[in-house]
């Protein structure tokens, strides 16, 4: 059975009355009121209601107006009830008048009335009480303007149209960059916010198309608001009125839109030009006079002719300029643009506050500035030749100028300046002034109001953040598991080595770097003072050539290049996978997490533009330095941030740059015939897929889901990292929510240096920038700030349990202990004290049952273990309960970790099952997922002597978490036969 059409789902045709009746309400609805009925009574979206209305109105024989219908006497309402015939023929239902049935009927009516009130409160904008204090709403005056209007209607009127744009519309929607067509003077004019203001940072373009789409969205929503409220509609809409100039511009825009939809492109261009000139005359007469002269005497511009705007684009530009060019003389809401902006402040469940609305205003303001520049370019005609402008100014001002000089055309700069002074700056009493002032007010509220908290700590080291919950041991396990898997992927999949020992070691003590060397393509590997063990340019290529099995993977006789393209693509897939893991690892181990654009800006070598390398070597540590930050496009200021990597992660970076990158780049040049190779650490993949913040976000989600079973976001991890550092790191190196916050504790520690700088007659900042700078000091970097960054990063390394950070702490006896180290020591002491005071027999009964008793030497061995004696040797026969010797202490105090070396496979599985049954966290060792949070770790003798497990033990020692090591079946001597494990 086919599904009924959308209009038949809501309405049915009643032939005897020639009307359309709502199936649910059982009322007839006039055709022109269908949209309003569906939206108000049934909460149908505007788009769906509009589609239903169009279909219903197309029904044949439908009464369109009340005068055409013979309505029974006494029924003046626009709706009349269509009474459904009774099924049993007994007529209408009799309403009870007394008794329990009547009271139940009252209850139903009460519930319905309350439901209606709640629905109106949720959907209808209502006036607030006088004692409700909301400075933001009082400042915006949204409430009195929009009171009584349905929120769903407002949200529906700014929704995107359902229809997909065709190819021609998409081509028209592509943003044409005007930055290349104008100079810095025009861009400085367009960025002004005051009448007489000197700006030093010009108007900046958006970074990519995604940013353009995002920031043009508010203007598109306002145009949709006007389009849907200018035509007939069946819902109560906000009141506004166009000026005559705005009305004419709107009618031209609608006409061009209709022609664009119909594909009518044969109309004459003169009509559009005349209409545009008429609008310009009323907007700025003096500018139009200059335009006419400019069109008569165009300059001889050079270079390619810019792409002209289409007719609908010109009409849209004219209308938007007309909205902006509106002088407010009484109320702000006399401006249609302010009215449309009020609709953008509505949410489904309230209002957009100071934390959400200022970014919308910023987008509207910046796009408006581009519109003004585009308008200036359109009005100035071809590129003018202003080379003789300064010579004319040398004439004696006492003599009258000739007509040609008085009518000298004004260029784009003068036109933009005129428009900016007229309606784009404060003091113009225009919608733009309203936006600038409201944005400033909103930001003031935002930065002086605390945000909602999301971080909570339980059980000492367990973090609650929104829906996420994990312990610090789990967090460390995730980081080290990711480092281990990245190391395995690099050594085995990319360098074809079964273990890291076969890879040339990084000579940390002999690596030198020169941050001042800005030669293109240069990095620390090319420093003449650095002597690497092997030639990284050839090592991997020769390694592939020496192994027949590896060589056969890449070679394919008969091809032009001699290599198998599919094999190379598979290898590049492994490279891409490693780079994704490396990005997340650097993000999580470098200290304060960087933002996505900062991380993606990292380059491993200098570029032709000079000095854009971001990876350096400093005293045996890899450091990546970012120069781009979130506010660069606004302020133009470049913040230099140093993030130091732990030795274990820095080694992966050096190996990749030294041994893998040369081989990878040459493969790309050969197979994909690339003419140039990017110096970014995360360039576009060979397949063409680019690195974006969305891709970084997905990589972090994937790695956190694998390790923790939870999905982390970039913004979420940044907040969690700040919370962790405040909780466990000392004040001088704890991550700051704002990079500009003053560090009081560090300032106190450096007070002596500051006094010395003051004696020299300058501040510490100036001293770092100008005086006694090191020969190898990086451009823009200050030694004092760099040391602060290093201290913050190394504290973070120690907290994560990286061995290099722990060793640095041991060598530096003067360094203060971080709070997490003191807390770990206190927790270990408390744990051991409780264990020494433990009643072993009582704990045994609690763990197993009231009938449980010690057997043989179990009790004596347990007392020796809980007393902290070492070593303890317990000789017991098979089945005598040796496993109880580590299970009972681990069950009683689960804050630490017990490592059990078990040679027998069957015994290891049995131990794991028994521990889990007793509620003891027991994990079998896997290098890819280090069990930092486990109470018992089962490991084989072979793995126990490996490098990765040794790193795990060192991390447990550094975190004061390793309680004991148990060696089971220590009497078994390893031999070369596999049967001994049976």
Report on the structure:
The protein is mainly α and 982 residues long. It folds into four domains: 6-68, no CATH class; 167-298 and 308-384 and 408-447, no CATH class; 462-750 and 780-811, no CATH class; 838-981, Rossmann fold, CATH 3.40.50. 49% of the residues lie in helices and 6% in strands. The protein has 41 helices and 15 strands. The strands form five sheets. The chain has a four-stranded parallel beta sheet with strand order 13-14-12-15, sandwiched between helices. Strand 7 (462-465) and strand 8 form a beta hairpin. Helix 9 (184-190) packs parallel to helix 19, helix 21 packs across helix 28 (693-708) and helix 24 (565-589) packs across helix 28 (693-708). The two termini are 66 Å apart. Mean pLDDT is 78; it is low at 73-95, 165-176, 265-270, 279-304, 385-405 and 738-751.
Give a concise summary.
The chain is mainly alpha-helical. It is 49% helix and 6% strand.
Show the helix and strand layout:
Elements: H1 6-10, E1 11-14, E2 19-22, E3 28-29, H2 34-42, H3 46-57, H4 99-123, H5 135-140, H6 142-146, H7 151-156, H8 167-173, H9 184-190, H10 209-230, H11 244-262, H12 269-283, H13 285-296, H14 311-324, H15 336-344, E4 346-347, E5 350-351, H16 357-380, H17 389-392, H18 403-406, H19 412-423, H20 431-447, E6 455-458, E7 462-465, E8 468-471, H21 472-494, H22 539-546, H23 548-554, H24 565-589, H25 596-600, E9 615-618, E10 621-626, H26 632-635, E11 641-644, H27 647-671, H28 693-708, H29 714-728, H30 744-749, H31 751-759, H32 764-770, H33 783-800, H34 803-811, H35 819-836, H36 840-847, H37 858-866, H38 884-892, E12 897-901, H39 905-918, E13 922-924, E14 936-939, H40 941-944, H41 947-958, E15 962-967
Parallel strand pairs: 12-14, 12-15, 13-14
Antiparallel strand pairs: 1-2, 2-3, 4-5, 6-7, 7-8, 9-10, 10-11
Helix pairs in contact: 2-3, 9-19, 10-15, 10-16, 11-12, 11-14, 12-13, 12-14, 14-16, 16-19, 16-20, 21-24, 21-27, 21-28, 24-27, 24-28, 33-34, 37-38
């Amino acid at each position: 059975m086919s599904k009924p059409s959308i209009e038949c789902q809501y309405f049915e045709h009643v032939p005897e009355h020639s009307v359309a009746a709502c199936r649910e309400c059982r009322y007839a609805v006039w055709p022109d009121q269908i949209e309003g009925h569906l939206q108000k009574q049934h909460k149908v979206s505007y788009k769906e209601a509009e589609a239903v209305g169009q279909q219903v109105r197309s029904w044949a024989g439908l009464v369109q107006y009340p005068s055409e219908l013979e309505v029974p006497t006494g029924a003046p309402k626009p709706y009349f009830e269509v009474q459904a015939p009774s099924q049993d023929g007994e007529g209408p239902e009799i309403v009870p008048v007394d008794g329990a049935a009547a009271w139940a009927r009252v209850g139903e009516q009460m519930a319905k009335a309350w439901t209606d009130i709640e629905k109106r409160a949720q959907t209808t904008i209502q006036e607030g009480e006088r004692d409700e204090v909301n400075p933001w709403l009082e400042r915006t005056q949204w409430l009195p303007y929009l009171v009584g209007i349905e929120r769903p209607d407002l949200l529906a009127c700014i929704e995107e149209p359902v229809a997909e744009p065709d190819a021609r519309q998409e081509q028209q929607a592509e943003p044409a960059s005007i930055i290349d067509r104008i100079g810095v003077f025009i861009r400085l004019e367009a960025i002004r916010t005051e009448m007489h203001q000197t700006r030093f940072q010009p108007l900046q373009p958006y970074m990519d198309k995604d940013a353009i789409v995002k920031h043009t969205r508010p203007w598109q929503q306002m145009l949709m608001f006007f389009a849907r409220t200018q035509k007939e509609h069946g819902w109560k809409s906000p009141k506004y009125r166009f000026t005559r100039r705005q009305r004419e511009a709107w009618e031209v825009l609608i006409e061009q839109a209709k022609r664009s939809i119909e594909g009518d492109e044969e109309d004459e261009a003169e009509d559009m030009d005349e209409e545009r000139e008429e609008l310009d005359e009323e907007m700025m007469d003096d500018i139009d006079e200059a335009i006419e002269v400019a069109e008569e005497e165009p300059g001889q511009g050079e270079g390619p002719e810019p792409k002209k705007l289409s007719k609908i684009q010109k009409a849209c530009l004219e209308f938007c300029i007309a909205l902006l060019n509106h002088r407010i003389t009484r109320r702000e809401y006399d401006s249609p643009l302010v009215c449309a902006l009020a609709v953008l402040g509505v949410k489904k469940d309230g209002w957009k506050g100071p934390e959400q609305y200022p970014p919308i205003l910023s987008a509207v303001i910046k796009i408006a500035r581009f519109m003004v520049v585009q308008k200036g370019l359109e009005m100035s005609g071809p590129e003018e030749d202003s080379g003789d402008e300064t010579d004319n100014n040398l004439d004696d001002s006492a003599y009258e100028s000739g007509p040609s000089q008085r009518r000298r055309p004004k260029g784009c700069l003068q036109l933009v300046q005129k428009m900016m002074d007229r309606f784009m700056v404060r003091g113009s009493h225009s919608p733009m002034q309203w936006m600038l002032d409201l944005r400033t007010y909103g930001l003031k509220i935002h930065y002086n109001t605390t945000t909602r908290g999301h971080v909570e700590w339980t059980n000492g080291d367990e973090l609650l953040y929104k829906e996420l919950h994990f312990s610090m041991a789990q967090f460390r396990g995730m980081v080290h598991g990711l480092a281990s898997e990245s190391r395995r992927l690099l050594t085995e999949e990319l360098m074809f080595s079964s273990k890291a020992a076969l890879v040339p070691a990084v000579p940390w003590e002999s690596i030198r770097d020169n941050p001042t060397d800005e030669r293109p393509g240069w990095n620390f590997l090319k420093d003449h003072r650095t002597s690497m063990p092997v030639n990284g340019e050839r090592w991997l290529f020769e390694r592939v050539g020496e192994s027949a099995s590896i060589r056969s993977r890449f070679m394919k006789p008969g091809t032009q290049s001699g290599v198998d393209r599919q094999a190379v693509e598979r290898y590049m897939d492994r490279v891409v996978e490693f780079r994704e893991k490396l990005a997340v690892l650097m993000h999580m181990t470098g200290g304060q997490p960087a933002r996505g654009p900062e991380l993606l800006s990292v380059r491993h070598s200098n570029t032709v533009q000079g000095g854009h390398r971001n990876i350096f070597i400093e005293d045996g540590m890899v450091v990546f330095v970012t120069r781009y930050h979130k506010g660069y496009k606004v302020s133009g200021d470049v913040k230099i941030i140093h993030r130091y990597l732990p030795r274990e992660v820095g080694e992966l970076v050096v190996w990749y740059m030294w041994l893998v990158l040369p081989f990878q780049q040459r493969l790309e040049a050969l197979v994909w015939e690339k003419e140039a190779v990017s110096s970014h650490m995360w360039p576009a993949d060979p397949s063409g897929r680019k690195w974006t913040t969305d891709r970084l976000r997905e990589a972090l989600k994937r790695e956190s889901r694998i390790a923790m079973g939870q999905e982390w976001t970039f913004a979420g991890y940044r907040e969690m990292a700040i919370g962790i550092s405040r909780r466990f790191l000392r004040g001088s190196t704890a991550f700051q929510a704002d990079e500009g916050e003053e560090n009081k504790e560090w300032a106190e520690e450096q007070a002596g240096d500051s006094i010395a700088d003051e004696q020299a007659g300058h501040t510490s900042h100036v001293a770092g920038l100008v005086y006694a700078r090191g020969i190898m000091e990086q451009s823009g970097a200050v030694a004092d700030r760099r040391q602060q960054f290093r201290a913050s990063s190394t504290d973070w390394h120690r907290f994560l349990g990286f061995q290099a950070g722990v060793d640095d702490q041991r060598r530096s006896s003067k360094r203060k202990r971080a709070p997490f180290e003191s807390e770990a020591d206190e927790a270990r002491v408390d744990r051991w004290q409780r264990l020494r005071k433990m009643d072993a027999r009582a704990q045994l009964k609690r763990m197993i049952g009231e009938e449980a008793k010690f057997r043989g030497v179990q009790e004596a061995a347990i007392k020796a273990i809980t007393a902290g004696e070492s070593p303890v040797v317990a000789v017991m026969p098979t089945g005598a309960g040796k496993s109880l010797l580590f299970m009972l202490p681990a069950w009683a105090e689960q804050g630490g970790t017990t490592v059990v070396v078990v040679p027998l496979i069957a015994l290891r599985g049995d131990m794991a099952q028994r521990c889990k049954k007793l509620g003891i966290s027991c994990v079998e060792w896997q290098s890819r997922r280090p069990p930092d949070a486990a109470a018992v770790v089962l490991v084989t003798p072979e793995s126990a002597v490996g490098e990765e497990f040794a790193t795990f033990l060192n991390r447990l020692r550094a975190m004061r978490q390793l309680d004991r090591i148990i060696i089971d079946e220590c009497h078994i001597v390893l031999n070369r036969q596999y049967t001994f494990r049976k």
